[in-house]
Amino acid sequence: MTRVLAVALQKGGVGKTTTTVNLAASIAEFGLKVLVIDLDQQADSTECLGVELGDDDATMWEVLHLDRAERVPLTSIIKASAVPGVDVAPGALALKEMERTGLGPGGQMRLARQLDEITTYDFVLIDCPPALGELTTAALAAADDVLTPISPGPNEIKGLKRLGATVLDVQDELNPDIEIRYLLIAGYDGRTQVSKDIRAMLRRDWGDWEDGGGYVGEVRHTVRVAEATARSMPLAVHAPTSTATEDYRAIAKRIIERVRES
After folding, report:
1. Which one is predicted more confidently, 68 or 13?
2. Burial 204-220 (b: 16+ CB within 10 A, else e)
3. Would you say 187 and 15 are in contact if contact means Cβ atoms under 8 Å apart?
4. What letter does residue 208 receive in the DSSP assignment?
5. Per-residue b/e over 67-87, b at no fewer than 16 CB within 10 Å?
6. Quick one: CA dihedral 228, 231, 234, 240, positive or negative?
7. What is the pLDDT of residues 100-154, one digit of tens each?
8. How far apart are the first and last CA of the chain?
């Protein structure tokens, strides 16, 4: 069965796209098939996975379009990425308009219905925009789990609390089974007290992974992450032996094992 993870937090610059791209690449290294759905208007996941779009190529904007006559199936826009085993449903700048105008009647369940037709992937990772608007709500309605990357800092914890409230609203109205089941720290620096404090808080409030909790681990800070982002490529391609690459592989392995156990 396909497992759908929404990568979400109400804040930009916390590593959502970095986590989406590198977790997808790491899962694929285990021989599994992954689809990345790019719901961010910046379409960074699309670019980082090496997908180039032509003028006539449809994106998630057409999949979620308010007008049925303009709408296209999700399966029709999927493209192979530069990473073996990873495909992409591309994002586009036009998605910004949907945050402003909304998705229309039934729109928040539109992605969920489209994903019902997707059976060829082991995992689907949805890269959510940095706002808890219509597109993130649609992602939460379609997902089995929420994965939240946290950067060390107090504002990210506030964003986590707001995301938790949104998840509860989606449980009530759209998807009763959705929960925040995976949390990680992106850019962890064990030399700083703030990183240590955030890790201790997540372990306390969400539980250690070894004890069945949701804290799946940390991705160590390294310049290789910024280099890979600047070059628009996954860490596994740019720096396959870096500490961050190793951390994403370990996190991917943990998530795969827990999904199989469930």
Report:
1. 68
2. eebeebeeebbbbbbbb
3. yes
4. B
5. eeeeebebeebbbebbbebbb
6. negative
7. 888 988 899 999 999 998 999 999 999 999 888 999 999 999 999 999 999 887 7
8. 11
